[in-house]
Amino acid sequence: MGALAAWVSSHTDILARTAWEHLVLSGVSLAIVVAVAIPLGIALARRGRASGPVVALVNTLRTIPSLALLVVMMPVLGTGMAPSIVALALYGLPAVLLNTMSGLAGIDRDVLDAARGQGLSEPQILARIELPLAAPVILAGIRSAAVQIVSAATLAVFIGGGGFGELISAGMGLLDIPQLVIGALAVAMMAGTVEIGFGWAERGASRRLGLRTA
Fold first, then answer.
1. Rounded to an integer, what distance in angstroms lies between the CA atom of residue 68 and that of residue 62?
2. Quick one: which of 97, 109, 112, 100 has its CA closest to 137?
3. How far is residue 92's CA from residue 150's CA, in Å, rounded to a whole number?
């Protein structure tokens, strides 16, 4: 522990920079995922079986290793933070998209028919009924995507994306065990914080609906 504390105290600038880079990588990637996946999930849920090819493509993304996605971005966007963010967004997209579709598909049709019978328009039904009822499932997808992105962002260092992966990679290359351990602990702490934070949000949404989550 003394060696770890000594490394942190003498490398606070490096730790702060890599922490900021990892936050940017993860935060921007997750924001893109949410901005794209939820509207797309709503549109696909409306199409039923016609959405099959898109779902199949998204499921294919889930089978591709995160490092492979990062490497594929290099010929297209080069190196640095931008290709890393695009690759991480693609990596996190399936969880939110599929959960959005699943959450909307699980809503009782009788509830929607009753809302239409009361004169609500489709946009009103979506905003007032469908999205609130699907919120716990959607938040579960966002939580899963967030943890995946935070963990996978460690690999962004291999295409110049920075982040905590820089500490881990340098620690391995230089056999600097304190630096390696600090990098690994930092990623684990950030992923754990994200998991707990979104878990609270998911449980809060469920409580408002009178549901229970694991």
1. 12
2. 100
3. 10
Q: What single string gives the DSSP state of each residue in 112-152?
A: HHHHHHTT--HHHHIIIIIHHHHHHHHHHHHHHHHHHHHHH
Give the HSE-up count for residue 178: Cα atoms under 13 Å, Cβ half-sphere.
Answer: 12
The pLDDT tens digits for 19-28 are 999 999 999 9
- Average pLDDT across the chain, whole number: 89
pLDDT score of 214 more than 80: no
Give the model confidence (pLDDT) of 59-118 as tens digits: 887 788 888 888 888 888 888 899 999 999 999 999 999 999 999 988 888 988 898 888
- What's the pTM? 0.88
DSSP state of 107: S
Task: Name the nearest CA neighbour of 156 among 97, 89, 95.
Answer: 89
Q: Which amino acid is at 210?
A: G
CB 167 within 8 A of CB 14: yes
* Cα distances (Å, whole numbers) of residue 61 to 37, 51, 65, 198: 13, 16, 9, 23
Amino acid type, 127: A
b/e map 28-60, b = 16+ CB within 10 Å = bbbebbbeebbebbbebbeeeeebeebeeebee
Dist. CA 67–CA 61, nearest whole Å = 12
